Amino acid sequence: MDDTIRALLDKDAIRDLIHAYCDHFDKAEAAEVAALFTEDAVVDYGPEVAPLHGRTAILAQIEGGLAEFFAASSHHVSNVRIAFDGPDRASSVCYLYAWHIYRESGAEGELWGRYHHDLVRTADGWRFARLELRGAGTRNFHRARMHPIGRRGG
After folding, report:
1. Model confidence at 113: pLDDT above 80
2. How far is Cα 59 from Cα 74, in angstroms, rounded to an integer?
3. Contact at 8 Å (CB) between 59 and 30?
4. pTM above 0.70, yes or no
5. pLDDT, tens only, 11-64
6. β-pairing, 89-102 with 108-122?
7. Cβ partners under 8 Å of residue 75, min gap 6
8. Strand, helix or coil for residue 103
9. Which of 15, 43, 109, 125 has the fewest CB atoms within 10 Å, measured from its CB?
10. Please, what are the domains in the chain?
11. pLDDT band at 4, cuts 50/70/90?
């Protein structure tokens, strides 16, 4: 296959993977979210949460959050940039807006930020090997601190 066509198809598949993460999370489908990661993936949601190592830990964290913490959420991603490091490895950055309703209080919380991903091609298609959440701003969000987006001068 021509390298340009392959890169376009791979970028489309990676965008679909990112969108699937948001879709499954918002539909409270924890197992489907976890299946988007490699067995040894690492997820870093921020300095107030210990990094999650492996699909089993990722599944447990997401199941707990959906069952006990979030009554609803709506994740929106845009500005997806993808770079390849060979035919079977890639990295991506996308902008994020996430809206949540908290189970206990019924309050709404908002997050503006970015997802940083490392991705690998597997027998099942592209999967996340690493996901890191970085925050640009929040409103009534449940965390006081986030990894910064890397803005100059701040």
Report:
1. yes
2. 19
3. yes
4. yes
5. 999 999 999 999 999 999 999 999 999 999 999 999 999 999 999 999 999 999
6. antiparallel
7. 21, 22, 25, 26, 96, 97, 98
8. coil
9. 125
10. 3-148 (3.10.450.50)
11. very high
Residue 137 phi/psi, 5-degree rounding, is: -175, 160
Tokens 């066509």 belong to 5
- What type of residue is 143? R
Beta-bridge partners for 81: 93
For residue 25, what are its two tokens? Answer: 């999370």
Among 146, 142, 149, which residue's Cα sits nearest to residue 109?
142
Sign of CA dihedral 58, 59, 64, 70: positive
How high is the pLDDT of residue 1? 66
pLDDT exceeds cutoff 80 at 144: yes
Q: Which residues pair with 95 in a beta bridge?
A: 78, 114
Place of tokens 């309050």: 107
